[in-house]
Amino acid sequence: MSQLPQNAPLRDTESLRRQIAARKRFDLLFGWLGLLLISGALLVLFLLGINLVIDGWGPLWQRHEVKADKSAFGLREVAGTLRRREDQWLLQLDRLIVLADPAVLAPLDGQRVDLVGRLPRGTKKEIETESIAPAGERPAGTLSGVLRSVSTKDEAGKPVTRYEIEPDPLLVDLSGTDQTALQEGRRYAFTVKGRPSEGKVVATEVVPLKTRSFFTSYPSRFPEEAGILSAWVGTLLIMLVTMVLAVPLGVAAGIYLEEYAPRNRLTAIIEVNIANLAGVPSIIWGLMALGLFVYILNFGRSILTAGMTLGLLVLPIVIIATREAIRSIPQTIREAAIGLGATKWQTIRYHILPYSLSGILTGAIIALSRAIGETAPLVTIGALTFIAFLPPPPVEYRVSAEDRAAYESALKTDPNAPAPSPKLHFQPFAWLKSGYTVMPIQLFQWVSRPQKAFHENAAAAGIVLLVMTLGLNGVAIFLRYRLRRSIKW
Q1: pLDDT at 10
Q2: What distances in angstroms separate CA 150 from CA 1, 96, 147, 160, one per listed residue?
Q3: pLDDT-derived band at 1, boundaries 50, 70, 90
Q4: Does the CA dihedral 377-380-384-385 come out positive or negative?
Q5: Which of 140, 208, 215, 245 could pair covalently with 68 via S-S, beta carbons 3.0-4.6 A apart?
Q6: How far apart are CA 279 and CA 313, in angstroms?
Q7: Segment 63-110, tens digit of pLDDT
Q8: How many Å separate Cα 292 from the centre of its chain?
Q9: Burial classification of residue 202, based on how many CB atoms lie within 10 Å of its CB (0-12 exposed, 13-18 middle, 19 or more buried)
């Protein structure tokens, strides 16, 4: 071993110390900078999330009433609670906002008044006045009650004063209706004849009301009545088709490419193309589906077309995730199984797949999380922006076309022919041909409206979509944790 000569120059230890200190300062600065950027990003996400919750929390809990027979409110229909007084029925209307000149209403604040005007249609809370005066100074009008002022704010946040009337109950004549099923205290829609006179109104039809929420209501041109029923049902059905198509096909393709495919040029080309397809813009998949599924295969603009489009969109992601999960299994597992006499498929079936299942499921669920928020390909293939119906159920009671035709034919000879009774009808795949909408499209449709109330509905829909996405990712994390704990090598 050679030794340094006596006069060899020694290293500048002070210079080395300065260099090491500078590197430590740089590492510390870089660490703090990264922490600052991550904290800033989390703060922005937190503020955006808080703003989304503040705007959308109200619509999530809003309720409104609809007729139980699913028909729309007519021009002469008014909604209220039915009360009983001895042998008479009373109609109790809700508190109503009086639409009139505030200068006329202000002197009457806190007094009993007689109001002349048309009763509000359906469940509306406003009544337009033709005249209003203190009670007793004129003949009885449409309504009588106490007028009160209420301080509130308009959409711009400015304080305003509005006037409300708490109507006295109206005596309702139900002699022309079926009263056997009426219940006191329940809310109904009454078809009234003319205007009330002397506190009495004649009803020609009574239909019970039922309450709907944001999740059980269809889209509407009235923001307080709009909901996401058709959107979330369409989203779940499309995700079902996407999962059935993409997951089995993607897992099978990943197993073949990783375990069975020969290592040649063709396999290399396939692998490169799969990696490239995972990065193709989603609108390209929509254009492909429009030409292939809609125009060539004639699947129409249906749930089946939408599910197949999103299935092809996420298929490369499932294939890549499957291959990575299988590749993470040690080669010794395969060698041990084959050494004990297992075939290649037995090795895959009983060893490779169980051990890689957590990674495969994680990749599949994350792929579905991406598909649930896609909009461009679904718009391209004809998703509806306003849909007020649900796909047909797999099983329903209905009158068949043959029975209906036979009944119409029998009516020509016998006007008293019995009507056909509905029968149980199975149609397990009829919903695949139905029109659809999804949560992102419904959200975009509301955001494009100028009214602030629709923007709040969009925020509520965004919360629901975010919860659905985070829920899928949470399921992926839970399954990965449980399956990894069960692995015993």
Answers
A1: 47
A2: 99, 12, 10, 8
A3: very low
A4: positive
A5: 208
A6: 10
A7: 889 999 888 888 889 999 999 888 888 999 999 999 888 888 888 988
A8: 28
A9: middle
